[in-house]
Design a protein that fits this description.
The structure holds 2 protein chains of 2 kinds. Chain A is of the alpha+beta class. In chain A, strand 6 and strand 7 (113-121) form a beta hairpin. Chain A has helices at residues 15-18, 74-81, 91-100, 125-137, 143-160, 164-177, 190-194, 198-208, 224-235, 286-297, 303-311, 342-359, 363-375, 384-396, 402-405, 407-413, 416-426, 441-448; strands at residues 32-36, 42-47, 53-61, 85-86, 89-90, 104-109, 113-121, 214-220, 258-263, 269-277, 318-321, 330-338, 434-439, 454-458. The radius of gyration of chain B is 22 Å and the shape is globular. Chain B is built from 16 helices and 12 strands. A 7-stranded mixed beta sheet of chain B has the order 1-5-6-4-7-3-2, with helices on both faces. In chain B, strands 8-12-9-11-10 form a 5-stranded mixed beta sheet, sandwiched between helices. The chains are: A alpha+beta, B alpha+beta. Chains A and B meet through helix 3, strand 7, helix 5, helix 6 and helix 11 of A and strand 1, helix 1, helix 3, strand 5 and strand 6 of B.
Chain lengths: 473, 453
């Protein structure tokens, strides 16, 4: 029984983690209180009292960017180990505490940040803040827990490969970005994880965790002055990290087309990911691109989904996703279709892409898209955890709160020619697309060859981080 | 459940969500009260529940029909879900595609899901288009039509959905086999999405027959949560749904599952890297006398890193990468408690099975500790509040209580019910349930090469 966690149609997947949040006319965010601690940590507080719960998000500037070369996965295992022993508590005691309170605690790493997110009942704020401070400042990194998590990570990567939906993006980033740090798998691959030692984790933690790297947002049923006092007491004297946060170099958008074919011999359908380098989070045309993406592939009646699903019957769904980071993220068309219709579905996707790039989006569709985006905006900022995540995300990218508060105004004010211009600038011509396929190679090898020089790997290959392009252009 | 639209996001925490709506416990202090909810029944039997919530200027409408794969017979399995898709494909007044186009161009979005027991149509929209939503929802109940070309193209969409969510997803593939083995007579035997051979053969006449019987206003319950007043909702309901005539409903005669009298085993061998184990035990229907004890039992076994199964199989013995425990189906008829284990690739299925059985018999032998019970109750309390976080969540939890369990007010009395559960009750339930004769065991054995077909 599959139950999709489905955001309303328009939201690019990675928005859940760090994405372009949106705000609505006629609807206000809770008032925020921003505090800069002496060590540089940024704390953002917002009271919201409709239910007795509190959500928080702690972001640290580091993530996969700070992994040593060949040690991909360091950021992920480091943040994962925080809950496996910290302060006076063992891994088992932390789990018992969190579960015992009915709280949620989630840790993870992204390309440029690591995070701890959580949600708990407001009556437990004292003990949960103590725990957060222990996790960030006093992790124990027990050898045994390190060994366990390492083998679970390796096994988890294998398990993920049994469902192509889990891994196609990983292959995509690696193949699209090549040597750029965004091409390095944040969770590592089986081979890099095998090489990790506890000393690597200690080094990673020592170099990357510290007060100046922290953004902490807390939203929910509490008193802001009291919460501020508690947080000051817990984090003001946390030393800074020894060096500056790592920065990704700008991404240069390459030309030419190439194909990665990942062979999964039992697949009865082909999963595809057709991508180019998109834009950075701070891109001046970001709202216009949101509109273009929503119209093209970000809602049920989008141009892409209409062609492939509604009219074509070729797939259960097709979408475009454009996550953004400090530097340009990918812009990818994703879908799947039965093995036999691989070429047909991909050709149709390419046709829609080319047509929207050349002709733009007609004015009726543009108005409809804007109305859709405005109407679907408020539920994105309805809950404590959504707001905490969005506030931390804005701060991380140096954007102001008004980015959210005036988002829908900006959507409505965007002119058709701005959308047309951004489509021409960002959407790829068909000769400049990077293709990733996961499917039954024996059946589709000859089909995918026509899209460019092919690199083929078996899905069981333990290496992901060093995919060689098939041919230099 | 099968959803009409896909998402690439969701794959991770699916099993956690399943435990969602039915978990609830005592809110401290002044929580919400049933007095916030207003109900109205139209002359044709359609029931409408309204829960005003003015936090955001949006509305969630969940329109539930009492029909699911439970109502199917051999030959038309999956038809309820296929029908759900066809509800978006045109009526006498609106050509195919216009339902979604009108909704989206006016700021709304839609989806739907089908389970073994119900089909639910969901609309999320700004409050300004409330009337449009009523017009469209009523229109497709009154006047749905079937375009033969759309039937064929939507059939391919559903087949693609099956390939994605079952055939190319080992966990779902195994679960389908386990559930089919656990039920030999009751229609819970059949997957909600349908067996492939039936997907290929549904006819337009099957759809018409289904529509005539099941899509009557007296078979529907509509939940409206958000920035509305009950008065405007009831007025629109009278105006748009009022004129649609009631249809006598057939007697609900579903084959009862005969008692299981011995272990059943199923096995799948296919290409893959990770062995999977799933065990299923027959249990009661949603909302029966054991409902709260069952939720807590499942929570103690599989929820979080402090749960018994995680601690034993993942943490201590390092046999598995992940475990989950959940109830499914959880509907009108007796369902299953399912325990699923993602086995570490270099470990054996046999070792995981032995450890899992050992934990189940321990729980049956001595029951949970007082601390475990407290933890599970706190989890239920937090779950209760999470169910009230959004207008969507409220519509879902309210609808689940009203439609599946027969009374929305159970949401608000759940507090005391969870709090009252004792260790002895959980132990007794574990002892009754985790019996070898009541067990179905499924394994997925990965093979290095795909066998030629």
């Amino acid at each position: 029984m599959i139950r999709s966690l489905r955001l309303a149609a328009a939201v690019p997947a990675l928005l859940l983690l760090l994405g372009s949040p949106r705000a609505a006319s006629g609807f206000d965010l809770p008032r925020t209180r921003e505090v800069r601690l002496p060590n540089g940590a940024l704390v953002i507080l917002a009271e919201k009292h409709d239910i007795p719960m509190i959500a928080f998000r702690a972001i640290l500037r580091c993530g996969g960017l700070a992994d040593a070369p060949g040690k991909e996965g360091e950021a992920a295992i480091t943040v994962g180990l925080l809950r496996k022993g910290a302060g006076k508590r063992t891994a088992q005691e932390i789990a018992a505490l969190v579960d015992g309170l009915g709280a949620d605690l989630d840790t993870g790493a992204g390309l440029e940040h690591s995070y701890i997110a959580g949600e708990f009942m407001s009556r437990d704020q004292g003990v949960m803040l103590d725990l957060l401070a222990d996790l960030l400042r006093r992790p124990a990194f027990p050898q045994e827990e390190f060994e366990k998590l390492k083998s679970q990570t390796i096994d988890g990567i294998k398990a993920d490969k049994d469902d192509p939906r889990n891994v196609i993006g990983e292959y995509g980033y690696a193949f699209l970005y090549g040597d750029h740090p965004y091409g390095r798998p944040v969770d590592g691959d089986e081979a890099t994880n095998r090489g990790l030692t506890r000393d690597d984790v200690l080094r990673y933690y020592r170099e990357n965790y510290g007060g100046d790297r922290l953004i902490l947002s807390v939203v929910g049923d509490f008193s802001a002055p009291t919460m501020e006092t508690r947080i000051r007491a817990k984090f003001s004297d946390w030393a800074k990290a020894p060096g500056p946060a790592p920065q990704a170099p700008p991404v240069t958008r390459g030309a030419g087309h190439r194909v990665l074919l990942v062979d999964k011999p039992d697949a009865t359908q082909t999963y595809f990911w057709l991508a180019t380098i998109g834009v950075a989070r701070s891109d001046p045309d970001r709202v216009a691109l949101d509109i273009a993406n929503t119209a093209y592939g970000g809602r049920y009646t989008s141009i892409l989904n209409t062609a492939l699903r509604i009219e074509g019957g070729l797939t259960y769904g097709a979408a475009i996703r454009g996550p953004r980071y400090t530097q340009a993220g990918p812009l990818a068309v994703i879908s799947y279709t039965k093995t036999e219709t691989t070429g047909k579905a991909v050709d149709l996707a390419l046709e829609t892409l080319e047509s929207v790039r050349r002709a733009g989006i007609d004015s009726t569709a543009l108005v409809a898209t804007k109305t859709f985006m405005v109407g679907q905006f408020p539920p994105r900022l309805e809950t404590e955890d959504q707001i905490a995540g969005s506030l931390a995300d804005l701060a991380f990218y140096g954007l102001e709160k008004e980015e959210l508060e005036h988002y829908t105004d900006r959507v409505l004010a965007t002119r058709p020619e701005e959308v047309k211009r951004v489509l021409e600038r960002v959407y790829p011509p068909s000769e400049d697309i990077t293709y990733v396929f996961v499917g039954k190679a024996a059946a589709i090898r000859s089909v995918v060859r026509k899209y460019g020089p092919v690199t083929e790997v078996p899905i069981t290959d333990p290496m992901l981080s060093r995919l060689e392009p098939a041919a230099k252009r | 459940m099968k959803h009409r639209q896909f998402s690439w996001i969701a794959i991770v925490s699916t099993l956690v969500l399943l435990a969602g709506p039915s978990r609830a416990a005592a809110p401290p202090g002044s929580g919400p009260s049933p007095r916030e909810i207003r109900t109205h029944v139209l002359a044709n039997g359609m029931k409408i529940l309204v829960w005003p919530d003015h936090d955001i200027p949006n509305v969630a409408v969940y329109d539930w029909f009492h029909v699911g794969s439970r109502n199917e017979r051999p030959g038309i399995t999956g038809l309820s879900h296929f029908f759900e898709h066809m509800m978006f494909n045109g009526s006498e007044h609106y050509p195919p595609g216009s339902f979604d186009r009108l909704m989206e161009q006016n700021g709304g979005s839609t989806n739907a899901f089908t389970s073994e027991d119900v089909t639910c149509y969901q609309d999320w929209f700004p409050k300004s288009i409330l009337e449009l939503v009523f017009r469209l929802e009523a229109d497709r109940i009154c006047c749905l039509s079937f375009d033969p070309k759309k039937v064929e193209s939507e059939r391919q969409v559903v087949y693609s959905e099956r390939r994605t969510s079952v055939d190319n997803d080992n966990e779902s593939l195994l679960d389908e086999q386990v559930q089919a083995a656990a039920y030999v007579g009751h229609p819970y035997h059949n997957p909600v999405i349908g067996w492939p051979g039936d997907i290929e053969r549904w006819t337009i006449d099957d759809l018409r027959a289904y529509f005539k019987v099941h899509y009557a206003p007296n078979n529907a319950t509509m939940i409206v949560v958000g920035d509305v007043t009950p008065e405007e909702v009831f007025r629109l309901a009278e105006q748009y749904f009022g004129p649609i005539p009631a249809v006598p409903q057939p007697t609900d005669r579903v084959t009862q599952e005969p008692p299981q009298v011995g272990e059943r085993r199923v096995s799948i061998r296919k290409f893959g890297q990770t062995p999977l184990l799933e065990m299923a035990f027959h249990t009661g229907a949603a909302g029966d006398k054991d409902a709260e004890a069952r939720d807590l039992l499942v929570d103690i076994l599989g929820s979080g890193e402090s749960s018994r199964l995680y601690r034993r199989l993942v943490d201590q013995d390092r046999l598995a990468i992940g475990v989950s425990a959940y109830v499914n189906p959880e509907g009108f008829d007796p369902g299953l408690i399912k325990l699923a284990v993602t086995v570490a690739p270099d470990k054996t299925l046999a070792a995981s099975e032995a450890a899992l059985l050992d934990e189940l018999s321990k729980l049956a032998a001595t029951g949970p500790t007082e601390q475990e019970l407290r933890k599970a109750k706190n989890g239920a309390l937090a779950g209760y509040w999470r169910g009230l976080k959004t207008i969507n969540a409220k519509a879902e939890v309210l609808g689940t209580y009203e439609v599946i369990e027969g009374d929305y007010r159970k949401l608000f009395t759940a507090p005391e019910r969870y709090e009252r559960v004792t260790r002895a009750e959980i132990q007794a339930l574990a002892r009754r349930t985790f019996d070898e004769k009541n067990r179905t065991v499924g394994t997925l054995v990965p093979e290095k090469e795909q066998a030629a077909r």
